[in-house]
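Checklist before submission:
- one chain only
- standard amino acids only
- sequence pasted in full

Submission:
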Amino acid sequence: MIMIKIGIPQALLYYQYYPAWQTFFEELGAEVVLSPLTTKTVLAEGSARVVADTCLPVKIFLGHVIALMDKCDYVFIPALRSVERKVYNCSKFLGLPDMTRAVIPECPPILEVDIDINRGKRQLYQSIYQVGRRFTWSPLKVRRAALAAWQSHLGYLRLMSTQKLTPPQAIGIPASGPMLKVPPPAPVLANIAVIGHPYLLYDEYINHRLVHRLQQAGSHILTPEMLTTGQLDSATISVVGGAYWTYEREVVGAGAHYLEHGADGVIGVMTFGCGPDSVMMDMVRRRAAQLGTPFMCLTLEEHTASAGLVTRLEAFLDMIHRKKRAKTCA
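Returned file contents:
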């Protein structure tokens, strides 16, 4: 029996939902195929399909779709409108399937699911079934696959928050398997919180191996995924009273929590031209200024050079180390 191959780009929502997607499709008897990691070629090919003002993460996503064209029967591109009532997603996620069809007409058929909690559970179940019927006509089998995917997602989140893992470390580790813990670098010179969207924090081509460079410099890294939903919600409410954007917690919530709980410094990562991120990063910057904690915002775009990023990191870490030494000597 020939298995249907489902292509999943390693970009945008991949780091948040891949274990759930993989479980869902494999439960339905499909084979999941991943695009390669981001490279200069991937970015160049994606950028060539859209206007210059298109945001960097979308350009990279389109490059990943192009990389999958000869490797799969379908490309899975969900349209996430809202995953919580009265909390809304960025417009780039809403129109992603349509944009992909428009700029990559030779793309394999797109497997699309429209996720909008504001429309009610019935509409959500119907959307999931519309995807599942490509593999089976049995609603029961689709339901079992969806429930297994949800449990996989919860296990993935629990694994990261309890074992303090990043998504790249947690992906591929069974939630029911041995709990692996990655020790911090020794000696730890500073606790640095890195906040932002996963597709920026963990794509090493975009951020020039930011997390790796910080660890090599003796920093213990703290990320949004290492916090529970309750911790993120509580911190977000303390700053803005409640989230409006879907991923406000991973910026405002994580930043506020780590500022209050032991981070020696906070680094915010965003892309050039992102309006919502600019507002959210400014909220974190203001809270950091109130508490006297060093904060740096790294704005990434296509022409960001590693040399400039490294120079800023070195200066930021040097400031934190001098501040810690001054407190010790006082």
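Reviewer check: The CA atoms of residues 229 and 249 lie 9 Å apart.
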